[in-house]
Amino acid sequence: MPSDLGGPPVEIHRIGFIFAMRAEGAGLIDRLGLQERGRLDPDLPACWFSGRVEGGPDGRDLEVAIAFAGEDPQHGCDRIGTTPATLTAYLLCREFRPDLLINAGTCGGFQRAGASIGSIFVGGGDFLFHDRRIPLPKFDEFGIGRIPALVDESVRAALGAESGIISTGDSFAPTAEERVFFERERVTCKEMEAASLAGLSRDLGIRFLAVKAVTDLVDHPEPEESAFARNLSRVSQILEDRLIQLLEWIRVRE
After folding, report:
1. Residue 143 maps to a domain
2. N or C of the chain: less Cβ packing under 10 Å?
3. Residue 235: inside a domain, yes or no?
4. Residues near 163 by Cβ (< 8 Å), separated by ≥ 6?
């Protein structure tokens, strides 16, 4: 396969997806007919699904796995944020050995960057952290991350998406200081996993792609939590359609 996903050429046969929330990825599991495989670790709620997506006469078969960090037993909600996502991704990569790891999910977008509800973005430029403020030499840049996103134009075109800078943090609502950071760094998407997973993928030597769908607008007067709750289901369906489109594109690449 050509270097359409960034870096040297590599065959893509096994694709792993990490979603933060079950609601974001459940439809893709059903659509692909993946089978539940149970927990990734007996002591953690992280779970996964996998199966073969047949390519037919015009394409290769793909092995696909989808993982979630699972439900928090104390609070009864999805375990979102960087730590659960990174741990789940590490477990999936050790169990499934993907050629490509995709962090798919929803995000906050910015009107100034041309985003609207349902817009799809692929991580480009560098992946950043907006809430790791470490005012010490070298640690300051480590905190921000600046992990290169190795994706070229053909991936963006295959998804019908825009390319943009994705910034990751562990809080849903941004502070005033973080809003200044978004403006200075020309951030396009604000979310809670991608930069951590980009760093993990770099360490493990696995191709990484972040695909994000906008549920709310950070620079809009409507509270982000209201827009997120109202738009999650519809935007997840849009994301699902685009991910199917991406898998079809990968299957027929030579």
Report:
1. yes
2. C
3. yes
4. 121, 122, 123, 124, 125, 151, 153, 156
Q: Are 78 and 71 in contact (CB under 8 A)?
A: yes
Here the tokens at position 26 are 């459940």
Q: Is the entire prediction scored with pTM above 0.90?
A: yes
pLDDT of residue 54 exceeding 90? no
Structure tokens at 230: 């109202």
Q: What is the CATH number of the domain that holds 171?
A: 3.40.50.1580
What 3-7 contacts at long range (C-beta under 8 Å, 24+ apart), as own/partner pairs, is 3/152, 4/152, 4/154, 4/155, 4/253, 5/100, 5/150, 5/151, 5/152, 5/155, 5/207, 5/209, 6/149, 6/150, 6/151, 6/152, 6/207, 7/150, 7/207
- What range does the domain containing 59 cover? 14-252
3 assigned to some structural domain: no
Domain count, the chain: 1
Residue 107 predicted with pLDDT over 70: yes
